[in-house]
Design goal:
Largest sheet: 6 strands, antiparallel
Strand content: 15-25%
Helix content: 25-40%
Order of helices and strands: HEEHEEEEH
Distance between the termini: 68 Å
Radius of gyration: 19 Å
Number of helices: 3
């Protein structure tokens, strides 16, 4: 009896895996777990969108007391073109990244996971007066990201700060 139940469960799992594999193999670029682009992205009144209420978003423009969402902005010495060149190079050096839009001191990129094709939206805004690059990174789907957005921003910070010193 137990053996039959285990075989049935194994067949169900194998069937689900086969259907998922077929879907991934036949899906084109944006069809798997990407959903649509959020309509609140961009700069409004000199600010990026506020962080999502879920824990899968970080922003340097969140309240510093909001430890779940706040992440420090990226210090940068230079002007907007130099800042955006450093951001673009850092983004381009990471797997799964695609720059979607760049205008003046603003850059928007999407990051896709390799297998499931989940999408995270990452935005950068240069503030020359403060000498920082503000950043917002948010998952489109789900509630938790297991620290992926925060880790990505820290990796980008290291790459950008390395460029601003040279």
């Amino acid at each position: 009896m137990l053996k039959k139940a285990l075989i049935a469960i194994a067949l169900l799992i194998a069937g689900a895996a086969a259907v998922l594999a077929l879907h991934l193999a036949t899906a084109t670029g944006d069809t798997v777990f990407s959903w649509k682009r959020p309509d609140n992205l961009g700069v409004k009144d000199g600010r990026l969108a506020p962080p999502k209420p879920t824990p899968n978003c970080v922003s340097s423009q969140a309240e510093p007391a909001d430890a779940e969402h706040f992440i420090a902005p990226i210090p940068f010495k230079g002007d907007a073109p130099a800042a955006m060149a450093a951001v673009r190079a850092a983004v381009g050096s990471m797997r799964g990244a695609t720059v979607i839009r760049q205008e003046g001191g603003y850059l928007y990129a999407e990051y896709r996971t390799k297998i499931m094709r989940y999408v995270d939206d990452v935005e950068f805004l240069f503030d020359g007066k403060a000498g920082v690059i503000h950043v917002r990174s948010a998952s489109r789907l789900g509630r938790r990201d297991f620290g992926v957005n925060r880790a990505r921003v820290e990796s980008l910070r290291a790459r950008i700060e390395g460029r601003s010193r040279t």
